[in-house]
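Design request, tokens follow.
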């Protein structure tokens, strides 16, 4: 997507919400899409700019999850001078990433992921045939859209491997980007909440768990998979996941070194 100035994004938000005030960026910035917070009346709204296709995909996901009583941001679509953004009410719970920085215990980190798996189980029970967004029905297409074309052999191999793993086998509806920045958690209530609707799509379940383990902050991988199987009632192919995890670790390390090298050359 084309990036604009901060002043442009502020103008876009004011165009949709003329009484918006204290427009600012959150402490944890978006990696792919520009994100702003704005106070509108008594509410604080999240305003997330993205490609038009992603915005419309997320609206379908939001409506579908709301229909099935699964907690999720209730998004609205906005456009301003060929630039699109979605807005939804801000949830003041901290991200798991922030809580870990504050010293969250390993027990609470594990509990947060278990709570997410309860939500994941409910998402996966939505019939795949009822999920028909205009864009990005399958996670493979999301990976293709998010990753720039490259002639670099290492980057190309990493991306090709991810796309292949996500697209083989049974495809069910899942949140496919579970990590500490996409999880809101309350240590007091033990409640977890998933954000970032971009990653909700049809995918192979083993790849989704593989992706989760890649950024899981603890080392009790098998205990985590035990909880997933218990809460979803489905068995994972653990041998495939752990073998792929080793391959991904090698590819990911080479990918990060290559990205760093390419950035130094710019």
């Amino acid at each position: 997507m084309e990036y604009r100035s901060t002043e442009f994004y502020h103008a876009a938000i004011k165009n949709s919400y003329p009484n918006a005030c204290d427009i600012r960026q959150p402490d944890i910035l978006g990696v792919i899409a520009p994100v702003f917070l704005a106070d509108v009346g008594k509410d604080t709204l999240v305003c997330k700019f993205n490609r038009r296709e992603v915005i419309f995909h997320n609206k379908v996901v939001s409506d579908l999850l709301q229909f099935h009583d699964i907690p999720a941001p209730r998004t609205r679509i906005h456009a301003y001078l060929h630039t699109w953004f979605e807005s939804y009410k801000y949830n003041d719970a901290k991200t798991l990433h922030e809580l870990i920085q504050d010293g969250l215990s390993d027990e609470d980190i594990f509990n947060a992921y278990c709570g997410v798996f309860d939500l994941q189980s409910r998402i996966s029970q939505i019939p795949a045939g009822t999920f028909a967004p205009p864009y990005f029905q399958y996670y493979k297409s999301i990976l293709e859209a998010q990753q720039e074309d490259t002639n670099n052999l290492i980057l190309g191999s990493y991306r090709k491997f991810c796309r292949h793993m996500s697209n083989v086998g049974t495809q069910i509806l899942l949140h496919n980007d579970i990590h500490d920045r996409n999880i809101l958690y309350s240590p007091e209530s033990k409640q977890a909440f998933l954000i970032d609707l971009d990653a909700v799509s049809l995918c192979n379940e083993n790849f989704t768990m593989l992706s989760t383990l890649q950024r899981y902050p603890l080392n009790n991988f098998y205990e985590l998979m035990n909880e997933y199987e218990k809460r979803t009632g489905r068995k994972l192919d653990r041998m495939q996941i752990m073998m792929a995890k080793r391959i991904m670790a090698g590819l990911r390390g080479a990918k990060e070194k290559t990205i760093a090298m390419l950035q130094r050359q710019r």
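Comment from the thread starter after seeing the answer: thanks! Residues 238-265 form the longest helix (28 residues).
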